[in-house]
Predict the structure.
Amino acid sequence: MLEIGPGHGALTEHLLERAVELTAVEIDEQCVEFLQQKFQGRENFHIENIDFLKFDLQAFLDAHEKPWVTGNLPYNVSTAIIAGLMPKLHLTKGFMGMVQLEVAERICASPCSSNYGSLSVLVSAYADTQILRKIGPEHFTPRPNVDSATMLLTPKADALQAPEGFFDFVRAAFTQKRKTLANSFGRAYDKKKIQEAIELLDYPTTVRAEELSPAQFLEFYKVIVG
């Protein structure tokens, strides 16, 4: 199992008690020293002192067959961590962990909902998503100003085969989310090509980015780039 950001090891201790072989990745040197002392002698505990965004995830996955990934993700980098994990999610059993509720709602959002955006498209291209539990700030010390949620992301059997540049295209489509798709890209893509693709795919002229599923976005992208 791979744990991201163990902090002072509350979750880590619970996992180690189940005899799980666990590698923790922690950026804070003081936390690393604390955990090394706390779990001294635990042969199933390993820790890496590095920013997870710089951690060699592929090397870890090459050496560990289908691990679970978990963690109470730091709010300021949770979206970057999840986005980086998605293309390799099929090499894991999945991710189960905690993020800010707002982030979880964006990750797990469906098309045509208010929270649906480029992050939703990215994650749902690779994973089946589920919010397991909402957690209020009263459960934490110090008390945060936001609600949290635990969520489950499991690899899709039919994950989208996204070409290079696809998710940049999706992000561009959501830059002006309230506008119709023909007008939401700004100057990032040729407006005439966008309009022709909408017509070719028989989408309504009023269609917005938030109405397209990942598969529809991919179809749209392939028409635009040829």
Remarks:
- The first helix runs from residue 10 to 16.
- Strands lie at 2-4, 22-26, 45-49, 68-72, 94-100, 127-135, 148-155.
- The chain is about 35% helix and 20% strand.
